[in-house]
Amino acid sequence: MLGDIGVVFGRYLRATLRSKTNLFFGMLQPLLFLALFGPLLTRLDLGTAGSSWQTFVPGVLVQLALLGGSFVGLGILMDRNLGVVDRMRATPVGPVALLLGRTLRDVVQLVAQSVLLVLLALAFGFRAPVAGVLAGLAFVAVLSMALAALSYGLAMNVRTSPEFAAVTNTAVMPLMLASGLLLPMSLAPGWLDGMSRAVPFRYTVDAVREVFLGHYANGTVAAGAAVTAGLAALCLVAAARLFRRAVSL
Amino acid sequence: MNDDVIKVRGLTRTFRLRSGPVHAVRGIDLSVPEGEILGLLGPNGAGKTTTLRMLATLLPPTGGRAEIAGHDLRRDPAGVRRRIGYVAQSGGLDPSCPVREELVTQGRLHRLPRGEARARAAELAAALDLTGLLDRPTAALSGGQRRRVEIALGLVNRPAVLFLDEPTTGLDPGARAEMWDLVRRARADFGTTVVLTTHYLDEADALADRIVVVDAGAVVEEGTPADLKARHGGGSLQDAFLAITGRSVPDTAPVAV
Ligand SMILES: Nc1ncnc2c1ncn2[C@@H]1O[C@H](COP(=O)(O)OP(=O)(O)O)[C@@H](O)[C@H]1O
Ligand SMILES: [Mg+2]
Question: What ipTM was reported for this prediction?
Fold first, then answer.
């Protein structure tokens, strides 16, 4: 099983490395937010500790995981239409290995992109302790894994790419806005702040903000870790079921 | 017969759609002895692809049983997968993936160690005249070359049974003849049993040891090409087909599907 996952992971990682344009376009949106939106915040009072970058960069990273992770299903839909998925399924490699191998590739890709974003943010004036950045990247990795796996499971259960894109867009946009990614929910009116407490990504991004400030042992970080890990477990189980259902025999 | 490498009994598949059930396969029986090239001949929509996908473990049957290379389709699908090669009508190539990478990865998916997967890729490339193309992305190949890569992928695990879904649809006459030659060689070199679907009569005639005519999800006739011709007026296979299905199929016209 581990060997199978490794083979699938290797194949898709090499595919990613072959298409450098994809690698870049996947980063384009968070990059634009960083470069064209982030500077607007530097003179505002966000009501948070540290510089505005310390609040904003975690949001951009979680946004990358959210957008980058949720839409990976489009890739497997393309493979499915080409017959690549069937070709791989007609081998002894099981569905869960096919799912996890691909997911692992996405995690590696999104973490690599996150590292690039952090380096760029440094040029804008973002500062954070190395340990905090590593902890933040761990959050990004777990969240990416959860969303990418779920995205594949969903994609295998819809008929067409437009259908998949519609469902995913409808789910992702409100979740992104209601989780306080771009601006902290401390600025929000009570009802929005209350609503955002039902969105798991809120806890992830708040925890990343804390670790970027060098605070590791507090309730916010613990809640973020618990919610993110719980979400990942749930998503992986759901994804494996969805994937198996679509290809089972 | 007990040494049949494929035994199929009463295989059915019904698709449930909102518009109502589609009985794609209504009960197919097949017995294929080792080393045979069997042609599943039938018009579009006859249920050929659905049958092949079920036998390749890609689609759960609604009913019936099948045993392939000694493994029960329902109880041991993984065992079946180890012993078969399957080449879909759509081919299953990633356009941006180089030929070598596809071949080696396919070997690794069949759990060959890395070195062995590389050796197998080189060996198949030599046998299928792909050696000069190994570093090209599959998008940069001609239709015939692409088909050869797909067949090579299907042979990576030296399968007991190779399923080919319309292997020559869309190919020019030269590439078709090449493909026929290749299928015969796979049988001669590896003893592979081949089940292929086609709606070309000349292909079934030239390539298949035995033809099973499928229409509307059921077997309507079977025999050697000579049998069928003799049984249905001693004329051409075209006449036989017309007599069996009451319908004509394109003979050599390259119909795109
Ligand atoms: N996924 C599916 N859902 C619903 N109907 C299907 C599906 N796949 C095939 N069919 C139907 O089953 C019948 C047989 O199709 P198929 O096996 O592709 O025929 P062939 O390969 O002989 O042309 C057709 O009527 C087709 O429309
Ligand atoms: Mg077909």
Answer: 0.89
